[in-house]
Design goal:
With 376 residues, the protein is an alpha/beta fold. The protein has helices spanning 12-29, 129-146, 161-165, 170-173, 193-209, 221-231, 245-254, 266-269, 287-297, 302-309, 314-319, 323-345, 369-375; strands at residues 9-10, 35-39, 45-49, 52-55, 58-61, 64-67, 69-75, 89-97, 102-106, 112-113, 151-157, 175-176, 187-188, 214-218, 238-240, 259-265, 350-357, 361-365. The protein has 2 domains: 9-187, CbiD-like, CATH 3.30.2110.10; 192-375, no CATH class.
Length: 376
């Protein structure tokens, strides 16, 4: 019997965006709404229902009676993905502001950044860049449609988020007091391991059937954006392998692929330099240990290596190094990664590697990476 496809869900970022859309439009018009349609970062559109709507006292604005503030809640649906945030209510409260600015803040249950190296600066609410952009877009569109050019304050909240965050990796990342508002595509794809590996296998087969013997592989959206930006590569040209580096290599060898190039963020693919071929944080997280050992191999003194061990993210660790030290460290990381990739393929296939950072750009390449991309 054919298995039923796993259902996708939507992110906390999409919930915050939808709740903001409902709230800002009620604030501007005084008209309540039961559902909203939002455009997602990836281009899809989604209709979501408003679970709760509250309004503050009315006041006269431009000859109309409008609420001082509006709060709307949208329920998170993770689909078939096992996620601690499934079913939570994400609220957006919008209110008029006198400063003429659009500000986006975190309220109850939304964490705050306490360590450097994340997408938001220390002290900011843990609302990532893409959700912030989508929330702002909803406010700007509503203001433009109604001819309002003053300020708006948006506060995103997840009641109970602080307790739920203890079951995530937020405390380890230095995000305290609640959950993060996340999402790069707006959609949560179910994380069934076998389903993902089956999809990777199918993509390999299709590309090999098209006559492509050399393939580019990346773990996720950061890698796809990097390949598009640096090499002009369309999303469909690369294979997205999620955390399953080792299984993807095994499948490529099995299917007769002649070579692959792995391109990924250093925070993910540095684990390969420690022989870790499933890069999910639940499997292993020794990024700082690998960086510190690479620093020692590069001849950097032990004091600096110990400093790297205490860092929160790879970008934060690299910030502690000079440009020359970064180059020396990443050269050692690449050499170790090449060794473990060779072990995995047993010489059955060429494997190249490109590591990048959103802060520093390309950090390192294996010896054959440039030639591989030139012929791709």
């Amino acid at each position: 019997m054919r298995k039923k496809p796993l259902a996708c869900g939507y992110t906390t970022g999409t919930c915050a965006q939808a709740a903001t859309r409902a709230a800002i439009r009620t604030l501007m018009t005084g008209e309540k709404t039961e559902r909203v349609e939002v455009g997602l970062p990836g281009g899809k559109r989604l209709v979501l229902f408003v679970q709760e709507l509250e309004m503050g006292p009315d006041r006269q604005r431009g000859g109309r009676s409008l609420p001082l503030w509006v709060s709307c809640g949208v329920k998170k649906d993770s689909g078939d993905d096992p996620d601690v945030t499934d079913g939570v209510l994400v609220y957006s409260k919008v209110e008029w502001a006198k400063d003429g600015q659009i500000t986006i803040e975190g309220g109850e249950g939304v964490g705050r950044v306490t360590k450097p190296g994340l997408s938001q600066p220390v002290g900011s609410a843990a609302i990532n860049c893409v959700p912030r952009r989508m929330i702002r877009r909803e406010v700007e569109e509503a203001c433009e449609e109604t001819g309002y050019w003053g300020g708006i304050r948006v506060e995103i909240a997840i009641p109970g988020g602080e307790a739920l965050a203890a079951r995530t990796f937020n405390p380890r990342l230095g995000i305290e007091g609640g959950l993060s508002i996340l999402g790069t595509s707006g959609i949560v794809e179910p994380m069934s391991e076998q389903a993902l590996i089956d999809t990777i296998c199918l993509e390999l087969q299709v590309k090999l059937a098209e006559g492509r013997e050399y393939l580019v592989v990346t773990p996720g959206n950061y890698g796809l954006d990097f390949l598009r930006r640096e090499y002009g590569m369309e999303e469909a040209e690369a294979i997205k392998c999620s955390n399953y580096i080792g299984q993807t290599i095994d499948l490529a060898v099995e299917k007769g692929c002649r070579g692959i190039l792995l391109a990924g963020h250093v925070g993910k693919l540095i684990k390969v330099a420690g022989g870790i071929m499933n890069t999910h944080s639940a499997q292993a997280d020794c990024r700082m240990e690998i960086l510190a050992s690479a620093a020692l191999r590069a001849g950097i003194d032990g004091t600096k290596a110990r400093m790297l061990l205490e860092c929160n993210t790879t970008d934060d660790a690299l910030l502690q190094c000079t440009k020359e030290e970064r180059m020396q460290i990443m050269e050692q990381v690449i050499r170790q990664a090449e060794k473990y990739l060779s072990y995995r393929t047993r010489g059955g296939m060429q494997v190249e590697l490109i590591l990048f950072s959103n802060v520093y750009g390309i950090l390192g390449k294996s010896r054959g990476a440039d030639a591989f991309m030139d012929q791709y």
